Structure formats: structure tokens, C-alpha cells
């Protein structure tokens, strides 16, 4: 499970995503699918940049809920969250993350209610060696 973040001007937003696809290794290209109704979609579409923070198995449900079940239109999701600003100007979530990468959008594909953003990774870092939070673990162990 991941938090995909982006920015619009001086505003930040992020959301939970459960699938990120590596398209190529050289150059490092990934694909993310974002619901058009989500504020994060608007931010990525306009700024053409995003970050992906890979969550650990230890991530509390309250933290997942903040980014997964609430809208950035109603609250500042980054309040009381440890993050840093990356090369793209987009926040990188450090709380509960094991690694991250930053990407610049190279293409966007309209697929109905979603847009698949194709991004070229421009920086990445492994933060620790904890286990990643998989979608299966989220459902089977955390009962999400």
C-alpha cells in the first residue's frame, strides 16, 4: 500500500493507493491509477509531479484512514505528519514509510472514471528495512 502525494501551488494532498506498476527499469517508468473525483488527481493533473511513499506493515489504521477515507477538501492531511519536501516540491511522507520515489508525469491516459498517470522516477530512497504493507496483509491482518 502506498501514499501518492502531489501539490498545487503551495497546497499539498495525498491519498492511499493499492497498486503501482513498474513499466520499465531503464528509464525508471511507473504507472499509477487515480480516481478523477479525488483531489490528488486534480493536483497531479495540474502540477505534473507526484511522490509515492511505500507504507510499512506497522502503519496504524488511523494513519491509513486519514489518507484513505477522508478528503483533502475537508482537512489538511499533512497536519501532524512527518514529511519532507522532495526535488519536485511535493511532500514525501516519512511517517510509517519504508521507501519513496518522486516522479514527473510523462503521459496521462483517460480510462473513464480514472486517469492512469505514467511517471518517470527522478529520485528514490530506501528509508528502512521494515516489511511493506501489502493489500493482502491490509485486508487479512488489519481487517481493512
Automatic annotation (TrEMBL):
Span of domain Flavin reductase like: 1-140
An example molecular function term from Gene Ontology annotations: riboflavin reductase (NADPH) activity
Keywords noted in UniProt: Oxidoreductase
Keyword hit for Oxidoreductase: yes
Entry keyword annotation includes Zinc: no
PANTHER family given in the database record: FLAVIN REDUCTASE, FMN REDUCTASE (NADH) RUTF
Name this polypeptide is given: Flavin reductase like domain-containing protein
Upper taxonomic lineage: unclassified sequences, metagenomes, ecological metagenomes
Amino acid at each position: 500500500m502506498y501514499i501518492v502525494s502531489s501539490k498545487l501551488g503551495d497546497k499539498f494532498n495525498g491519498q492511499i493507493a493499492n497498486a503501482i506498476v513498474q513499466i520499465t527499469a531503464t528509464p525508471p517508468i511507473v504507472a499509477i491509477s487515480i480516481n478523477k473525483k479525488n483531489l490528488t488527481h486534480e493536483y497531479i493533473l495540474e502540477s505534473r509531479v507526484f511522490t509515492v511513499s511505500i507504507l510499512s506493515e506497522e502503519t496504524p489504521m488511523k494513519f491509513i484512514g486519514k489518507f484513505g477515507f477522508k478528503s483533502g477538501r475537508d482537512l489538511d492531511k499533512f497536519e501532524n505528519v512527518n514529511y519532507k519536501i522532495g526535488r519536485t516540491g511535493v511532500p514525501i511522507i516519512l511517517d510509517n514509510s519504508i521507501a519513496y520515489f518522486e516522479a514527473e508525469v510523462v503521459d496521462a491516459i483517460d480510462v473513464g472514471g480514472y486517469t492512469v498517470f505514467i511517471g518517470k522516477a527522478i529520485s528514490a530512497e530506501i528509508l528502512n528495512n521494515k516489511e511493506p504493507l501489502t493489500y493482502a496483509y491490509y485486508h487479512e491482518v488489519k481487517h481493512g
